[in-house]
Amino acid sequence: MSRKVASAKTAVSGIILNTITAVLGFITQRIFISSLGVEYSGVNSVFTSVISILTLTDLGISTAVIFHLYKPLANRNTAKVAALMQFYHKACRIVSGIIIVGGLILLPFAPAFVGETAVNNNLYIIFGLFITNALFSYAFNYRRPLLSADQKGFIINYVLTAQHIVLYTARILILLLTRNFYLYTLLTVVLKILENLTINKIVQKRYPYINKKTKLDTNTKTDIKKKMYGSAYHNAATYVVFSTDNIIISQIFSVISVGLYANYFMVLNSLDLLFGQLFKSMTASLGNILASESVKKLYQMTKKIMFLNFWVYAVVCIATYFCITPFIKLWLGPDFLFSDATVIALILNFYFQSTRLPISSVLASAGILYENRFVPVVEALINLVASIALAFLIGLPGVFIGSALSNLFLHLYSFPKYAFKLVLKRTKAEYILLFLKYFGLFIVAWIGVGGIVHFINLNNAITDFLIKGLISVVAPSILYWLIFRKSEEFQYFAKFGKDFIKKKLAKKPRRSR
User: Fold this and answer.
1) Which residues contact 371 (CB under 8 A, 6 or more apart)?
2) What one-character DSSP code corresponds to residue 117?
3) Gap between the terminal Cα atoms of the chain
4) How far apart are CA 128 and CA 67, in angstroms?
5) What is the distance between the alpha carbons of residues 472 and 494, in angstroms, rounded to a whole number?
6) Which residue has the higher pLDDT, 137 or 310?
7) Which of 27, 245, 370, 478 has its CA 20 to 30 A from that of 499?
8) Whole-angstrom Cα distance, residue 411 to residue 433?
9) Distance CA 370, CA 373 (A)
10) How far is CA 38 from the centre of its chain?
């Protein structure tokens, strides 16, 4: 299977998975709030953020192992693959043990994480179920990286699609029939175990040689440990940047504010999962290019992915800004809305965060974890200090502006230095200028669409939502087509699309006359 086909299959299966997940998730969230209330949603979000601390014990070993799997998979070195997988299995056992200890240490502080709340359930039991879910996520997760590294991510997506259909259907039934938050949380644990066991069985069947007893060579172990050391910084920063917003909001504002943010986060996260799948599916392809082809080829492919990433997320962010308020009105009602300033801050952070994907994939493919180990420390400090300070100065929007500033630091310092200069052998200025060019075009299109949408205010909420959504997607796309239609990047994807359609049409059987 070619890189393009594997990436396309993973992307398509991921889009199907995330579409199903988003639709069922929105239905479930609506029923969740009406059955249990917005405070339970806030508690759910805060505990999810706190439990992310325990995942730091991974130390990035999965990333390091996936990096080392690219070459032996490309060269069909089954002994090396088996050694890596057995090494990872042992590491997962150690991580599971640390999660148990860490969870027991955090358990007594469960009520303090949430703050004042009217939730009636025992917070210790609920938090204990979250710890259990984190434990089993690692205890049975030791074979999944092989599918990711071998560009078989679509298999994982097939399993997840089935699991999510069962999970959300059962959640809805539990909420409607029992309104029991304990059962709701326990269900997640049970299905996570079944998901991992299913994936492990598939991997065992496709790669039977991984059970052959073999030892990992000293040089590879040393390099994995080095990358783990560097990745520890990255994981800690990832936690601060992506998981502390809920905790900051609950401590400075209230758990109800966290519950409101959970609704906006669900919308943004669903969009990120849906469209981000296009780019995450290419990570293994970039690793394969780096292992078997030239740096020049990697640069050319990276630049193309950056272009597509900009176009997709610029349109997604603009459409989200103009549609998220009417959507939440339709979905939950007018009592669950944020101010326009907060929404602008969320969208800016979402853009900076989403446009990280291509370059983050390059760094992951090249195994750059140790060299830039101190960058995430600065990123985390910017996020934490700026978010807390701005929260007190300007209110809730400040939390998300702080996150946006930390993302911006990566775009203007880390990515140019470590991805473009170190890996791709290009100048730092090239990336900065390209990033600023794309960001400028995003702002221009955002303002332009705002000028058009400003005159639209229909009485029918559904029609208003649909018309604004259509304009928000079509107008920026026309602008970008006019600007980039003759570019090498646009022509590459246009040709890929045409070839894909031709192949599909050619496979259709002709009707007999």
Assistant:
1) 230, 418, 422
2) -
3) 35
4) 33
5) 22
6) 310
7) 478
8) 11
9) 5
10) 24
